[in-house]
Design brief:
With about 725 residues, this protein is α/β, with parallel strands linked by helices. The protein is about 50% helix and about 20% strand.
Amino acid sequence: MERADLRMPALALAAWAGGLLAALLPWWATGVVALAGTVTAVLRRSGALLAAVLVLAAVGAAGLLRDAQLQRAPVAELASARAVVTAEGVVTSDPRPTTGFEDGVAVRVTLREVTGRGTTYALRSPVLVFADAGWEDVELGSRLRLDGRLAPAEGDDLAATLAVGGSPVVVAPPDVWWRGAAAVRASLREAVAHQPEHQRALVPALVVGDDAGLDPQLAEDFRATGMTHLLAVSGTNLTLVVGFLLVLGRWCGVRGRGHYVVGLVGIVGFVLLARTEPSVVRAAAMGTVALVGMGVDGRQRGPRALGVAVVVLLLLDPGLATSVGFALSAVATGGILLVAPGLRDAMARWLPRWVAEAVAVPLAAQLACTPIVAGISGQVSLVAVAANLVAAPAVGPATVLGLAGGLLGLIAAPLGRVPGTPAGWCAAWLVEVAQRGAALPVPAVGWGTGAVSLGLLTALVVALTVVLPRLLARPATGIGCCCLVAVLVLVRLPTPGWPPAGWVMVACDVGQGDALVVRAGKASGVVVDAGPDPALVDRCLDRLGIERVPLLVLTHPHADHVDGVAGVLEGREVAEVETHADAAYGSTRVVGDATLQVLWPPPGHTVENPNDASVVLLAEVSGSRLLLTGDVEPPTQLALARSWPGLQVDVVKVPHHGSRFQDTGWLLGLGAEVALVSAGADNDYGHPAPETLAALSATGAQVLRTDRQGDLAVVVEDGALGVLTTR
């Protein structure tokens, strides 16, 4: 069998290294590595090594220049001063509800003109605008006038954030292509509007990644079964959409180079439909690579196309080097191009070729992505390959029929429902697969996220990649492997009980939000905040066996802390509810096994930022002191340092999901042995901030995160403090 050409993938790895150097190390590190590589290449007379060094240096330099532009741009300087500005900018994303603010939205805008501190600047600076619910209908591509206050941004791809008030002022409407894309998206939603809830939310997600209205529990089921890629814009979406257009073009008589025109129109149209956000551009590039890999001489052309795509994307946006989504897309595509053919050929010796290919593609992609997924989630999915295999027959029809419904609906809404109805039926099958797969006894197993654990997992994946073709080449061993996986999935292995004995507090994994439980006695717990989703906090309390809640404390009225209250009330006796408005400053009370003291807010305290009005509690259980901080930011942290000097604790719930906005002197001065961070996986805010985690770790504290380790249980046994997690 002809071996794949890996020269361009090697250059892609060099480009990736350049992006990582620029993002993670001091600016001079890129120059040192590039100089050393150049000298080595010249001495060894290696043109290949010299090319790799040049690509590394180019991407590294692009990353450094990009960071310098963002940090030194006038907008960033005005943001540091938290200046009030008047600006004009173009909307570059759809408005999305915010989890940290009540009834608000966040929308990305590229500012073209800013007036602040008496000076007007013409520029191109990306900012994240926070606005009230009246902005939820702002159209992508429209030009707005904005009046508000700038603040520093936490994301590394933003120059600032901008908080605005009032209604949006539209200076110019979107261009015609944006209006056309919006019409198709609206028509797509209308084509399935008559279907049941899950179906009408899932079809737009399959076609163009429009997951508005998708049930969070259903999204969790897709994640547990390794099918979450179907809910976001991915290369799969583009491959199906453009592949459908190419087939349609052939039916219409398109031949030769006409296919390239149809393919190009399909790619551009897909990007407009799915939005020109970085994740969409990335998906479009990887989908194009997949199409090349499926064509003539795909085993040679596919890896070359992948290498070119990675290099070009990193040159255009060096920040992708640290993007988990980019890594997953590139690695999955590489697995399909390089590993899947060998697996397919092995199984094709005793299976029909189309069956072998259907199994090989998801298996290769899953193998390639497993170490990255484990590093993010702390889990290794056992049902992912089987779930994707069973779901595969419905993905293509749901996507293609959904797109057809959106296009035909532009002519007449009833016409769009003709293909929209069977698209919904296909989506129903996907829902069934996800729900049943997630309900299996062991859909996934926990795995550590440390360097040793991930190194071991990577070695296992490499070994499997080498061994599997030999095992799958024979019916006996191939079927035996399938039976072994089935037993592991269907038979729950003995595991330590949950909650662990001696637990005193648990930080629940509720996504991007807070929900803490302080043990008050048998089946009894004080709940501090309820997270954004009733189902998630309800399940956490069920796992802990909590039947009675003598006290529910809501630290401040933001959605990511209060929207899950219904889940706390579900089937439980809640004796008392307390908010920041009625918490008695300085008071101490005993609630079962716990002693609670209110450290903040003081009487009559008023602030513009609700985060700084958060209730701060000092809890003592089994001799351990636990500080629960809500979302307090540096002004309140400094006030706490003045009001409660010398405060020392054993455990701290890191304020505001580990945001980089911390008074590090106060936070590190608490002397906590354990720091718990409650944050959602892949959240839009960059929480927790690497610098905050690094500062806490440098003190010797054990730092744990719900987004990677699930529920975090603080345990006291024989006077010793420890932490156990569900992952």
